[in-house]
Specification:
GO terms for molecular function: L-threonylcarbamoyladenylate synthase. By secondary structure, the protein is an alpha/beta fold. The protein contains 10 helices and 15 strands.
């Protein structure tokens, strides 16, 4: 299969994406977080192709992307807490795990057979595509399962070129980090995946503490132990560099043996967590090469966006 790449700003590009999706095809679409591999969430064959193209386990649910609250209500039951979160953070990088609406027509593969569905309202071209299609899009990150998430069209093409019909190129993603996933449950808010909206922002907006979900079951995307991984081994909290390691740095500080590093990428020379989040997957993608066997990552603070950055790094470093 030949994968076409179109500029998202080109005349007719959005129309072409809608035609492709309406025919059961797959389109990599840019969002404010990462590029998503989109298929019609109500078309079982299209959703199955998403799993096939990514090599994704079928027990791992997908996010259903909507263009407005009316579409969200067609597939999910939103209580007062969910509505308050949607009004504050949608469109934007927040995903809500909600009970399936009684009349929901999303294919069971999207929910991995669960009684809940993960819902998000993205910004940018994806929103317009969904509006014109008139149906939600199932859209995990547009990469092979478990590998580094894509923040540019080139990242997508390197991972999925020849496996999907179309890539819409809108340049680098603004956040460069996936959405935060939360689940309103019994008057509480459960954090299922930290992401581009911080815990502090959510708690300030809703007036409820955010509790980290317990248990080993997968309730949402991005909860696999090994995920977002480059080819080489990743070592975290590195306070020294061993000969031949490639260093992922943060801030202006130096670490022992840095002169031995095979290469050095600084996520943010100024120690800015938002800049580091935006650069994280691009840095890992640069190091996702057969000749890069070992990667050392300097410590990164565990507050604000640092929580999400460390979550992705922990999964990248997990045994495979």
């Amino acid at each position: 299969m030949d994968t076409r790449i179109l500029s998202a700003q080109a005349q007719g590009a959005i129309d072409e994406a809608v035609r492709c999706l309406g025919a059961g095809g797959l389109v990599a679409v840019p969002t404010e977080t990462v590029y998503g591999l989109a298929g019609d969430a109500m078309n079982g064959q299209a959703v199955a192709r998403i799993f096939e193209a990514k090599g994704r386990p079928s027990f791992n649910p997908l996010i259903a992307h909507v263009c407005d609250l009316d579409m969200a209500r067609q597939i999910a039951a939103l209580d007062a807490v969910a509505l308050a979160l949607a009004e504050r953070f949608w469109p934007g990088p927040l995903t809500l795990v909600l009970p399936l609406a009684a009349s929901a027509r999303v294919h069971p593969l999207v929910t991995a057979g669960l009684s809940t569905v993960a819902v998000r309202m993205p910004k940018g071209p994806a929103s317009e595509i969904i509006r014109r299609l008139g149906r939600p899009l199932a859209a995990p990150s547009a990469n092979r399962s478990g590998r580094v998430s894509p923040t540019t069209a080139d990242h997508v093409n390197r991972s999925l070129g020849g496996r999907i019909e179309l890539i819409l190129d809108a340049g680098p993603c603004a956040f460069g980090l996936e959405s935060t996933i939360v689940k309103p449950e019994g008057g509480e808010l459960l954090l299922l995946r930290p992401g581009a909206v911080t815990v502090e922002e959510i708690e300030d907006a809703i007036g409820l503490p955010l509790r980290t979900a317990s248990g080993s079951g997968i309730q949402a995307p991005g909860q696999m132990a090994s995920h977002y991984a480059p080819a080489g081994q990743v070592r975290l909290e590195a306070r020294h560099v061993e000969a031949g390691e490639h260093l992922v740095a943060f801030g202006s500080g130096r670490v022992e043996g840095e002169e031995k590093a095979a290469s050095r990428i600084d996520l943010s020379p100024d120690g800015d967590l938002r800049e580091a989040a935006a650069n994280l997957f691009a840095a890992l993608a640069r190091l996702d090469a057969p000749d890069v066997e070992r990667i050392a990552v300097m410590p990164i603070p565990r507050h604000g966006l640092g929580l999400a950055i460390n979550d992705r790094l922990a999964r990248a470093a997990a045994p495979r």
